[in-house]
Known about the structure:
single chain; 257 residues; Arc Repressor Mutant, subunit A; 2 domains; 7 helices; 23% strand
Amino acid sequence: MDLHLNEKLGDGYKSNSQKARVITETWTESNLFCPVCGSPHLMHCKVSSPVADFYCEHCHSEFEQKSQKRNRVSLPKTLEGGAYSAMEARLKSDENPHLLVLTYADGKVNNLVMVPKHFFSMSVVEKRKPLKPTAKRAGWVGSHILLKDIPESGKIYIVKEGVEEEPKEVLAKYLKTLPLKTASLTSRGWLLDVLKCVEKLPTKDFTLADVYAFIPDLETKHPGNRHINDKIRQQLQNLRDKGYISFVGRGKYRKIF
């Protein structure tokens, strides 16, 4: 994998966003394997697609890529999303593609992360204020993708801080996430939100009381739910069944991811 970008590809474009899109998407088409099945190449969606930028001919997985020129080695906390209503519809229909997040600087890829589509819920989509009446698209409501709120287990690095990860490790990390798939968008949101809370705990062993400390955060994400404690216990059981934590004793758990 050559991490250098061919910035000359952007010479024929005036818009910086168009330059960035052509440069980074050409790089992905030339360098990236399918992080779902390991097929050596991803194909660019030549026909205009409202959702996906790339697809895999072997496993038929689809990917949307968002790129950002960024001098910091860390990932951005948020990303620009599309129309809020469209994002909501995509998630409810399970037509959301996997997300590729590419950051670059000085003509070189710094980070490339895949977020599997089953790590998306409405908890990580922020509704923006409607555009002002004087705007060209007055009233349009956009969205932000809250990358910071996606569990770390769902950020699978393909390139990290300028170093390529082993493809077999990328595939193994993706396979490990598959038990987290859920049919319901609501149950997915709860499962991932509690997983994010567990990830934030500083020690491998933790208690139910430790997770209860996140109740204010969960109340904000799930307003109107009057059974937060019950939901937390339910999702800890689900995470245990899915192989992410183990039950040690009364009110005690251990991370195994």
